[in-house]
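Record type: monomer structure entry
Structure origin: computed from sequence
Chain ID: A
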Amino acid sequence: MISPRLWLFKALLAGFAFSASAGSAAAGLPAPVLKELRTAGIPESSVAAVVQEAGGAAPSLAWRATATMHPASVMKVLTTYAALELLGPAYRWKTEAWQDGEDLVLRGYGDPKLTYESFWLLLRALRLRGLREIKGDVVLDRSFFASQPQVLIDDEPFRPYNVAPDALLVNFKSLRFSFFPEPARGAVRVAAEPALPGLEIVNSLKTVDGGCPEGRAFREAIQATFQAQPPRASFTGAYPSSCGERELNVALHTPLDYVEAMIRQLWTEMGGTWSGKAREGVVSPGARLLYTHDSEPLSEIVRDINKFSNNVMARQLYLTMAAELGGAPAQPENASLSIKTFLRKKRIAAPELVIENGSGLSRGERMSAASLAAVLQAAWASPVMPEFVASLPVVAADGTMRRRLREGGIAGSAHVKTGLLNDVRSAAGYVLDRRGRRQVVVMIVNHPRAPESQAAVDALLAWAYEGAGRPLPAKPGAPPSRP
C-alpha cells in the first residue's frame, strides 16, 4: 500500500514531468482528435493537451503542454481548488444587518449566492426580531470589496455574466423574464421576477410558426431591448410557438437601485413600512448588530461555480480570497498573489500564469495545459479532493456536460469542467477509464474556429476513457491482440 506521503510526492512530481518525459508521451494528438480538428478546420498548432494518470509520474499524452493558452472557464478549476484549500470547505459568507440610529445598515462580505430567496429570509429575520418600521434610510455597506468596474466580455452589457463583483450583490442584480406563449390568441404573456417597483415592460410579442432559435438568435427574434434609467424591457418581435415557455435573465438596474427596489417590494409584502431611501455608507462605531445571515458553505458554492460555470460567483470568490488573505477592501491583485503563492507551496511553477478575476471571463488570463494538469494532480492528492471533484460537471449527467457524450461507456464516468469563448474551447477534469484508473485530461483550443472543436475535445475524453490509446488486457482464454 502506498503511504499518503509517497502518494502526495508522486502527485506533486507529476507537475514537473512534462519536459523530462516527452519522449515517453504520445508524439502527437490521437487520430480521432486529429480527424475532428481537420473537420473543424483547426490546425494542431492551435491545440494544447495533456493526459496523465492521476498520481502518475509521466503523461501518456503531452501535446504543446507548456504553451501559454487562454483557458476560458477552466480557469475556475484553479480558483475553486485554491479556495477550498485556503478558505476551507466549511467557509461561509455573512451578511449583517445593523441598527444605526434611525437607519438600517446592510453590510456585505461578498456572498456569491445572496439570492432572492436568501434576501427574503434576511428581511424576514428582521421582522421576526420586531423591526417593522424603518424610520431612516437603508445604508448599503460594500466596503469589504474595493469598487470594481464593469468589464464587458462582449457587446451585451445587460447579460448577467457581465455584472461587476459587489460585496453586497443581491440576486446577481438580475431579473428573470418568463415567456408564456398563448397561440390561441396569437400573443405571449411576459412576467418578471422579482417584479420590482418602477420596472416598465413593453410587450407586443406575436406567436408564429417555425423552429425555436437559441441564444442571441432568440433575443433577436423577440427584438429584446433594454435600458437602465429608468429600467425598461421591450419585447416587440415574433415568438415561435415551438419555443414553449422560455426564460431570459437580464441585469438592468444599478446595484443601489436594485437593492432599494427589492427592499421596497419585500418589506411591504411583510407588512413593514419604509419611507426613506437607499444610499451608500458604512457601519458606524455606535451601530448595534441586529442579525447575521450566513451563506451556504463553500463546498456547496463551488458546485454552482463549476457545474454551471457561473462567472459572477467565481469573481465573488476570487475577491473573497483577496480580502480574507490580503486584507479588506479586496483588490484583485491580492487574490492573484495569494493563488500564485499557493501554487509555489504546491511546487507548481506555472510561470506563464496570468489570472485577473478567477473566472476565465477575461481576455488577459493565461495558463498552460501542463499547469492545469499539475493543479488537477495536486487536487487529487488533497484533503479537499472529494468536495472539488464533486463540483465538476458529470459527463452526460449534469451541468455544462449534461448533453455531451451520452453514448458510450464514458457517460457518467468523468468529471469535466468546460470553457467556451468566441475563440476558445477547453476542458479539464478526470476520466475514469475502462481499466478503473483515473486519468487527468486537459485540452485547450485557441483559434477563431475554436467553438467548432467540441467533437475534437469529446474525442480526447473518449480516447482517455478507452485507456489513453493502450489496448485493454486480454480476457482469460482470448487470443492475444495484434499490434
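Annotation 1: The first helix runs from residue 4 to 14.
Annotation 2: Residues 1-24, 471-483 have pLDDT under 50 and may be disordered.
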